[in-house]
Design a protein that fits this description.
By secondary structure, this protein is an alpha/beta fold. A hairpin with a 2-residue loop joins strand 1 and strand 2.
């Protein structure tokens, strides 16, 4: 009866998969009726399911999530695919930098594939750093994954083989029009890319040449329709650019290289 009522409420509220959502909430609550009712009320208010369950799958990993960070999405897996395409000899990658690490999803997924590498994740939010550290420990990467609470690449003195970044890229005026799960619950600082959505790229891309070691690549996630503008920023910084599409055919990632520093690895095109 409880499950049936929850399904009906979710259906009437416009949720696309009310049966699945009700079952997930029931599994999370167990036999605790009060907890189930509380979870249902939060979902009816459009709080993301991932925040209710406090976990989300990404790449091959199961990650803890919280409202301190964006929820990892399949679109961002395009960055990991691009890194693997660029470095078919995976043992050659020894260092990974993740700018704006959030849950640590990109860094930890990269370390799961590049097993000879160590990584550094940077985020300006201490709550995000604490979450990423917990995920690293839970997944067995504590000895290889390091984290710093700082503003982008400010404390970085190393050069890296792979630099990953999913920066804020939603135009400020468009955030309110996003689905309520995003607009009302995910952290605005991780969404807001300024007036045109490109503020973070303008700050970060000029830093890329100094961050890349010989043969290194930087991979940036971009929003729909932003690839050309971000490519232009990269070209102005004398970077070579390749494009990577997600499963929906959207240009989702830009792969950047220092043209004169490709001798260390046999880098393949990351287009696709």
């Amino acid at each position: 009866m409880q499950l049936t009522l929850a399904m009906r409420q979710l259906r009437e509220a416009g949720f696309e998969n009310p049966g699945l959502e009700a079952r997930l909430l029931a599994e999370e609550a167990g036999d605790d009726r009060a907890r189930f009712d509380a979870l249902l009320a939060r979902r009816l208010a459009h709080e993301p399911m991932a925040y209710l369950l406090e976990r989300r799958g990404f790449w091959t990993l199961e990650l803890e999530v919280s409202p301190a960070t964006l929820i990892p999405r399949p679109d961002s897996e395009t960055l990991i695919e691009a890194a693997l395409a660029a470095f078919p000899e995976r043992d050659g990658v020894r260092s990974v930098l993740d700018l704006g690490t959030g849950t640590g999803c990109l860094l930890l997924a990269a370390l799961a594939e590049f097993r000879a590498a160590w990584g550094l994740g940077i985020d300006r939010e201490q709550a995000a750093i604490a979450l990423a550290q917990r995920n690293a420990r839970a997944l067995g990467f504590a000895g290889r994954a390091h984290f710093a609470c700082a503003d982008w690449a400010a404390p970085v003195g190393n050069e890296f083989d792979v630099v990953l970044c999913n920066p804020p890229y939603i135009a400020s005026g468009e955030i309110g029009a996003l689905m309520p799960e995003v607009a009302l619950f995910e952290p605005r600082t991780a969404l807001d890319g300024g007036v045109d959505g490109l503020a973070a790229y303008r700050e970060l891309i000029p830093m890329v040449p100094a961050l890349l070691g010989a043969g290194g690549i930087a991979i940036f996630e971009v929003g729909q329709g932003q690839a050309a503008a971000v490519r232009e920023l990269a070209v102005r910084s004398n970077l070579a650019v390749a494009l990577r599409h997600d499963f929906g055919g959207i240009a989702r990632a830009l792969v950047l290289r220092n043209p004169g520093r490709e001798k260390a690895f046999g880098i393949r095109s990351a287009g696709g």
